[in-house]
Amino acid sequence: MVVHPDDISTEEMCQERSIHAEHVQEVRRNVLSGGDAARIAALFSVLSDPTRLQVVHALLCAPTGELCVCDLASGLGRDDTTISHQLRVLRNQQIVAMRKAGRIVYYRLIDEHIRQLLTMGVAHARETINELALASVSSVEQGGGVLS
After folding, report:
1. Separation CA 18–CA 88 (nearest Å)
2. Does the predicted model carry a pTM greater than 0.70?
């Protein structure tokens, strides 16, 4: 993403250029390596697709911890081909694993980190929605009208 100087408001930037040496040292001490940043960005990129997120969430909530392609497709209202494609992307990123039982293929989440990320993401999204709803109610109660 390219940011042009005209796109940044002055309230988003320091009004005076001042370097705090101790803060710079801390940033440098904790800098995320280029390789780590690329791997994390790839993970978030894979999880940025709404269909893939729905698949991962369905697997997270599966009573047995795994679901077959047909159950995922039917439950999410999508066709088998779409779900298979998304599962292949998730498998290539080592987010899900598969097992075959005869002619049926089951998928499950691989590790606890993905479960935690999704659980926190869902909680954050719901908090944000609740905060917006509360702000809207508060604004109406104070005679400020509805937020747009």
Report:
1. 49
2. yes
